[in-house]
Amino acid sequence: MTEERNNTEQELNSQTEEETVEEVFAENEASEQTEDIPAQEEEQQDPMEQKIAELEGKLEEADNRYLRLQADFDNFRRRSRIELEASAKYRAQSIITDLLPAIDNFERALKMDVDNDQAKSLKQGVEMVYRSLLDALKNEGVEVIDAVGKEFDPHLHQAVMQAEDENYGPNIVVEEFQKGYMLKDRIIRPAMVKVNQ
After folding, report:
1. CA distance 137 to 183
2. pTM exceeding 0.70
3. Structural domain spans, the chain
4. Which residue did the predictor score with more confidence, 11 or 191?
5. What is the pLDDT of residue 67?
6. What local confidence, expressed as pLDDT, does residue 68 receive?
7. For 79-88, how does the pLDDT look when each residue is reduced to its tens digit (9 = 90+)?
8. SS3 annotation, the chain
């Protein structure tokens, strides 16, 4: 009986040993599987992180491009506004430039001496037209450049002759041959002058 009992105990022990071995293998497999899961997750996360980094890079690039385009557009708008203001301010420049020779001719005609009544009335008519033209130019912002008695300024005057006159100081305009004109702050035509040495 004791033998049978010992045999049963040995069988039970061997069964429990087999069960514990199987349990250990099962636990090892389970732990290997659980270890594989983070590895798989890491492998899945790496492409995800790469994709996120790639998308963030594209977003930053798009933001930079947007900011550059906005700055370019702001510059374009500012330049357009400045050009529009300048064209409105100096809109009459081309017609004024075309009228200046006619005004010069009027001035020459008015310097002529007349002796009969018919010529005097004609001269008065020419003078009225001349004044009307000057008033129209003044309304547009045109001013005559003062020359005689002023110090020579190369921006305002064009020296064509030199003189030695004791009545004037050095570098002073002595005589004006042709009037100069200014449109607001822009020189349309410098005055043609004789300058004292």
Report:
1. 9
2. no
3. 1-89, 93-196
4. 191
5. 93
6. 94
7. 999 888 877 7
8. CHHHHHHHHHHHHHHHHHHHHHHHHHHHHHHHHHHHHHHHHHHHHHHHHHHHHHHHHHHHHHHHHHHHHHHHHHHHHHHHHHHHHHHHHCCCHHHHHHHHHHHHHHHHHHCCCCCCHHHHHHHHHHHHHHHHHHHHHHHCCEEEECCCCCECCCCCEEEEEEECCCCCCCCEEEEEEECEEEECCEEEECEEEEEEC
d(CA 93, CA 188): 7
The CATH code of domain 93-196 reads: 2.30.22.10
In 3D, which of 113, 107, 88, 194 has the Cα closest to residue 148?
194
Please check the confidence at residue 66 and state whether its pLDDT lies above 90.
yes
Written as one letter, the residue type at 61 is: E
- What's the CA gap between 93 and 87, in Å, rounded? 9
Tell me how long the chain is: 197
| Angstrom distance (rounded) from CA 179 to CA 168 | 20
**In Å, how far are 1, 12, 15, 34, 119 from 6, measured between CA atoms?**
8, 10, 14, 41, 161
Angle subtended at Cα 90 by Cα 88 and Cα 92, rounded to the nearest 5 degrees: 100
Q: Which of 59-73, 80-94, 172-186 has the highest average model confidence (pLDDT)?
A: 59-73
- Yes or no: say if 106 and 123 are a contact pair by the CB < 8 Å rule: no
